[in-house]
Design goal:
Strand content: under 5%
Helix content: 55-70%
Radius of gyration: 20 Å
Structural class: mainly alpha
Largest sheet: none
Order of helices and strands: HHHHHHHHHH
Number of strands: 0
Number of helices: 10
Shape: globular
Length: about 325
């Protein structure tokens, strides 16, 4: 089978994501090599916890850069599904919160929101969070266009599409159980600040969407509840895991309290993600008709359409 070349939309989105990642990777490289750029107290970066966190976040960003490249290359289509979906699930769950909250905070509070009075200078926060917004938008767009070509059935089938599901009963129990946990966690977060409220909304929406997708309730497109469940579960797991790591190493940037909420949020997100993985694996063979050409993809019209490869390999 002849593979389609990535269209201009996917390539552009990936370039935007990569360009937004480079300043962050440069900053982390400087910090890890003993150059505390933008840090008022140089000793701050010598803390073992900060060294560990900087190494971890550098690695996370590097993985994102490799995936952005994968979305624009032929070898990217041949990567195992889990190697693409797992890091993107965590990454997009974290970035979705930043994409929503950072612009709102700047619009309502101005650039003064970055003046924390801590060891890190305000311009560092401006650069980092501005980069997160740009790379999140670019990475998500490239991922959607990549997924539309690799797994078109996700975008062309309805929620109530019939297919064989040996684990449907198990998925139903897990989805309802996750809703019983994620719902109260989301409600608790709704009483917090802006970031907490966004995380709470994603948690509740994601848990409800997972139940809808598993029970096949509705006649709308399957991708709609999938997106909500994806972001909600990824936000719960990624945010909870990051908070638990910060708490466990007692990092200087850590926030006090909320450990129990984040722990249960992480576990609920993990369970939701596993349930979604079962659902996607069982739906991977349905929907044998590719969608119409996306306006940002390709220039050859129907001549470059190829039989779909639906397996989640």
């Amino acid at each position: 089978m002849t593979e389609r070349r990535p269209g201009i939309g996917r390539v552009t989105a990936a370039i935007v994501a990569i360009a937004a990642m480079l300043p962050y990777l440069t900053l982390k490289t400087l910090w890890l090599t003993g150059h505390p750029v933008g840090v008022a107290d140089p000793a701050f970066m010598n803390d073992p916890a900060m060294i560990g966190l900087n190494t971890m976040t550098f690695g996370m960003e590097a993985v994102g850069l490799v995936l952005a490249l994968a979305f624009t290359t032929r070898w990217g289509r041949r990567l195992p599904a889990w190697l693409v979906l797992l890091p993107l699930w965590v990454g997009t769950g974290l970035l979705a919160v930043v994409i929503v909250t950072a612009p709102i905070m700047v619009l309502t509070g101005g650039l003064a929101v970055f003046e924390t009075g801590g060891a890190i200078e305000p311009w560092i926060y401006m650069m980092v969070y501005g980069g997160f917004v740009a790379q999140g938008a670019g990475l998500m767009t490239a991922f959607v266009l990549y997924s539309r070509d690799r797994w078109p059935g996700v975008f062309t089938t309805r929620i109530d599409h019939a297919f064989a599901s040996p684990t449907r009963s198990f998925q139903t129990v897990v989805a309802w159980g996750a809703l019983l946990v994620a719902g109260p966690i989301g409600a608790v977060k709704l009483a917090g600040g802006l970031q907490d409220r966004v995380e709470g909304l994603l948690a509740i929406a994601g848990a409800v969407a997972l139940v809808v997708a598993v029970r096949r309730r509705g006649r709308g497109p399957f991708w709609a509840p999938l997106v909500a469940a994806w972001l909600g579960s990824g936000s719960l797991f990624g945010g909870g895991l990051y908070a638990m790591i910060i708490s466990s190493v007692r990092a200087p940037l850590g926030a006090p309290g909320a450990e129990l909420t984040e722990l249960f949020g992480m576990l609920a997100g993990l369970v939701m993600g596993m349930c979604g993985a079962f659902l996607l694996a069982e739906r991977s063979g349905v929907g044998d008709v590719q969608p119409a050409e996306h306006p940002l993809e390709g220039e050859d019209g129907e001549r470059d359409r190829q039989p779909a490869d639906h397996g989640h390999r």
